[in-house]
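agent> Task received from the user: take the single chain below, predict its 3D structure, and emit structure tokens. No templates, no multimer pairing.
agent> Plan: (1) validate residues, (2) run structure prediction, (3) serialize to tokens, (4) report one or two observations.
agent> Step 1 OK, no nonstandard residues flagged.
tool_call: predict_structure(input=
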Amino acid sequence: MNVDNSNKTSDKESSRIYVLFYSFFLIPFMIAVFGAVFFLLFRFITFETNSAEDLLNQVKIGSASKRWQSAFELAKILNSPDLIPMSSSFKDQMISAYERSIHDDPLVRSYLAMAMGATRDTTYGSHLLNGLNDDNLESQIAAIQSIGMIGYSAAVPQLKDITITSEYHNERLAATIALGMIGDQTSIPHLTNLLEDEEPNIRWDAAVALAKMGNDSGVPIITGLLDREYLDQFKEVDEIEKKQVLMVAIKISSLLIDERFKPKLITLAETDIDLSIRDAAIKTLEKKYKDPIAS
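)
tool_result: status=success, residues=295
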């Protein structure tokens, strides 16, 4: 009788252990395995590569929202030289997509223009030049910016015309900047005239453009941009923008060496409230002007 009770007790214990094994180990383990398999299967089904070719394909065949998002991502990817496809097939497809986008959401056309500009490839120049005639202002400006990025000198006459005739300040500014990026020496007289423009941003970027070409006509303006008190006169320029302007001016003063910049650089190096501005000024003085104050 005791043996039977012992066996029954043993069987119950074995049964309980078996149940515990299922409840606390095997079943959760199986759930985890099936969950992992389901997750991997879902990822496989929904996985989308982010290569330039795949994004361009989405621009062509995707839904309305997918097209502009893919064009935006494409422009970001092509900013990395290693990710730019070099095949003529890809370039032809880019051109074709850009030409067809004239009837699409202006965002698609704008981001495709920026994608072309990001490649720094003049192959797209004539097609971007056509974009200057778009009805949509944003896509026009995107084409202007991209023409500057690829350095397409054939666009210089039209860019000059835009800086004179456009009624939109941001379009005139984009054309001024693009002329500086292209760096065609024939633009120097035109940019020199823009130093007298009524718009401060036009004057500033004309001076920067000239300095990039080694011309010192805009030095007095850039000297002003190295002066925080001067920038404080423009109430519409916030602190972040002031910092950007100062950084650009410091960089320009390292490209175009001119003793007229030196007093302003010293002031920035010694007294500016922003430590990164101070550091940039100190490094420029040390490396380009050999100033002992910065040592």
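agent> Step 4: summary for the user.
The CA atoms of residues 179 and 187 lie 7 Å apart.
agent> Done.
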